[in-house]
Amino acid sequence: MIKHLVAPSILACDYGNIQKEIEMINDTDADWLHVDIMDGMFVPNISFGADMLKVIKLHSKLPMDVHLMIEQPDRYIQTFRNAGADNITVHLEACTHLHKSIEIIKNAGAKAGVALNPHSPVSLLEDILENLDIVLLMSVNPGFGGQKFIYQTIDKIRKLREMILVKNLPTLIEIDGGIGLQNAESLLQAGADVLVAGSSVFKAGNPKLAVYALKNIGIKGLYA
Ligand code: DX5
Ligand code: ZN
After folding, report:
1. Which of 34, 82, 98, 205 has the most CB atoms lying inside 10 A of its own CB?
2. Sequence-ordered list of residues with C-beta below 8 angstroms from that of 82, at least 6 positions apart, any chain
3. What protein residues have CB closer than 5 angstroms to ion ligand 2?
4. C-alpha of residue 86 to centroid of ligand 2, in Å
């Protein structure tokens, strides 16, 4: 069985101790570090810029999974790549020329992802899927951590998994928003490959144990 990936989202960490928080994640079996970039336009919130990504990258041992929640993301793809992004995910809803945006990401040497807001059907990806390394399905409305998981996402995962199987693609399905032990198993059963977790890791009493538990879902008896 190929194990799923876990990507803690640094958005939920204690910013006053960000270096320690990153080092704490280094000491887990997390696979990627998820970094949310928000511009106050595409989403109502503003988070980090490229200089912050450089600092995060400096301390982290993990690949940087950069989620651009910004309008006209083409303007910043190279900047975030230079700052250390390994995966760059843009929103379908923010790209008029999505095929071109994916090309820019790949030419910059990063893995290319497309994110869908909760209302966007996976069928919109039919003609671009084979160009994508990652599809990120938002399971909350983007902009903030700590929101409630939108249950319709499960069905979207199943549909997307079917599309990927039919085309026999290596594209990863990443789910982002409201994820924790309460729903992780259902997401994996529906066909998810990557679980992003912000609050359920950083706000946990024992964040390392939270990563461990998310990573070991499906191993019987571990967290029954
Ligand atoms: C929301 C971000 C998420 C966020 C998830 O717009 O894209 O990555 O950090 O946070 P939780 O896991 O708390 O829902
Ligand atoms: Zn995100």
Report:
1. 34
2. 50
3. 36, 67, 176
4. 15
